[in-house]
């Protein structure tokens, strides 16, 4: 699944630079995650880095975008051309 940022986001700016796929960007009110670029850090790290640094725990899995580990790895390979 891609990750999402909930409205509990405090715009602290710590998640954006941690994303290896540049999937996180400022939205109109809070940061947002582009589901087409989010691989949950599969291919880069063992755990999603944005979740690791978020001080308010507002980055859950997006239930509307289910993806398997293999699908995330395929997306990673496309994004990175690996």
From TrEMBL:
Domain 4Fe-4S ferredoxin-type positions: 1-29, 31-64
A Pfam family this chain is assigned to: Fer4_7
Protein keywords: 4Fe-4S, Iron, Iron-sulfur, Metal-binding
SUPFAM superfamilies: 4Fe-4S ferredoxins
Name of the protein: YfhL family 4Fe-4S dicluster ferredoxin
Organism: Vreelandella gomseomensis
UniProt lineage: Bacteria, Pseudomonadati, Pseudomonadota, Gammaproteobacteria, Oceanospirillales
């Amino acid at each position: 699944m891609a990750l999402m940022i909930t409205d509990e986001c405090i715009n602290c700016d710590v998640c954006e630079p941690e994303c290896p796929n540049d999937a996180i960007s400022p939205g109109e009110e809070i940061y947002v995650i582009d589901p087409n670029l989010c691989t949950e850090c599969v291919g880069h790290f063992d755990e999603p880095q944005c979740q690791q640094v978020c001080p308010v725990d507002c980055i859950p899995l997006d239930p509307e975008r289910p993806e398997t580990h293999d699908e995330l790895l395929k997306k990673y390979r496309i994004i990175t051309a690996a």
